Amino acid sequence: MIQYSLECIILRKPSILSGLYLDPTLIFAESGQPGKLQPFTLVGYDRSNIATIVLAVVHGIAGMIIFLLPIILSIQGSVPAGYTLVGIGGALIGAGGLLLAFLRMGKPILSRKIILTILPVLLFLMTAAFVGGFSMI
């Protein structure tokens, strides 16, 4: 039976009485062997899934900027129309990133084999679009 210690939770220090340790995503309790800790996940989240979700959100926002900004600037006439290729390249790399993120989370949109087959093609087309778009400036 695990005894909970408020001191341990607030200070995030090991408590001699409780054997409970708190991490932002995990609770650790002594497993019965000195020095060995047994992890218990909070609310069913796993550290790697939280990291993947945060990474997807941050990259999603950055990807929308890379995708939309060149198109908006081209429509406004601030840059040549060919600069929209940079936005297309951003969309391609965003699509590849989303495929890999869902694959890593264990919920792939396409099968692993298909993702790994089309990824080099996506990266090649993205590179070609970036080169073509940036050469217009």
Give me the secondary-structure topology.
Layout: H1 6-11, E1 20-22, E2 26-30, E3 37-41, H2 47-76, H3 84-104, H4 112-134
Antiparallel strand pairs: 1-2, 2-3
Helix pairs in contact: 2-3, 3-4
Question: In short, what is this structure?
Answer:
This protein is mostly helical. It has helices at 6-11, 47-76, 84-104, 112-134; strands at 20-22, 26-30, 37-41.
Major sheet description: 3 strands, antiparallel
Q: Class by helix and strand content? A: mainly alpha
Roughly how many Å is the radius of gyration? 23 Å
Number of helices: 4
Neighbour order of strands in the largest sheet:
1-2-3
Q: Please tell me the total number of domains.
A: 2
Helix fraction by DSSP (H/I, runs of at least 4): 55-70%
Mean pLDDT: 75
Number of DSSP-assigned strands: 3
The H/E string reads: HEEEHHH
What distance lies between the first and last C-alpha atoms, to the nearest angstrom? 68 Å
- Report low-confidence residues grouped into runs of 5 or more: 1-31, 40-45
Task: Name the features.
137 residues; mainly alpha; 2 domains; three-stranded antiparallel beta sheet; disordered N terminus
Question: How would you explain this protein's 3D organization?
Answer:
With 137 residues, this protein is mainly alpha-helical. The protein has 2 domains: 6-41, no CATH class; 47-134. The chain is built from 4 helices and 3 strands. The longest helix is centred in the middle third of the chain and has 30 residues, at 47-76. The protein is flat, with a radius of gyration of 23 Å. The chain starts with 5 loop residues before the first helix and ends with a helix. The model is unreliable at 1-31 and 40-45 (pLDDT under 50).
